[in-house]
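This part of the workshop introduces the protein records we will be handling. A record pairs a protein's sequence with a compact description of its fold. Backbone structure tokens are a discrete shorthand for how the chain folds in space. The question running through the whole workshop is how a given chain folds. The record below serves as our worked example for the rest of this section.
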Amino acid sequence: MKTLANQVAVVTGAASGLGTAIAGRLASDGVRVALLDLNTDRLAEVVRDLPTESRAYTVDITQEEQVAQTVRQVVEDFGTIDILVNSAGITGRTSLKSHETETEDVRRVFEVNFFGSYLTARYVLPYMLAQKYGRVLHIASIAGKEGNAGMIAYSASKAAVIGMAKVQGKEYAETGITVNALAPAVIRTPLVDAMPDEQVKYMTDKIPMKRCGTLEEVAEVAAYIVSPRNSFTTGFTFDLSGGRATY
């Protein structure tokens, strides 16, 4: 069985939060990491802290040509792509009922959360198909399964991400490529820290453990999902919810 050592991973949203944590966890297993984000300065700091060959790529994942060019550059730099982790995401404005939202804000959330993940997968998958191996992980959310009141853009976009993982898991099931999603409950990240306190309390109160998850807990589960050991699960959404998801 293959090991993670010397594999190449593309991680979006790698300049902070889940992306940084997952990139670090993969690097600790010997994975070489291509880190994608808009925050050039922060990306440079993350790269310096990783123990394996890693490179930073400043890219707007909502722009198709930028994504296509960046994926080509990653393959040129590393020779291949074995793993794709789509962890870039935004919440948009929260604590608003649907009729109070602004259309442009909702559209922007979908551009980042859904279309960003769609585009990176769109351009990475051909390389995985050529080598008959790959692992794709889309970071979704429990909100995408249950819907969080006051978060229609975020919840609906993450539901779309879950739907995408189901479709792609079936489409590539016989190719050596697995495509899965991970649906965390509230994880203590800068994204969550920026939310109104009442929104965070609304979400945390639903968790039987009565706490946020940690970045380390997410990274551990993600590292398994994209490893060769996870060879018979595809099109699935892994929950990480402190007991919230029991269905």
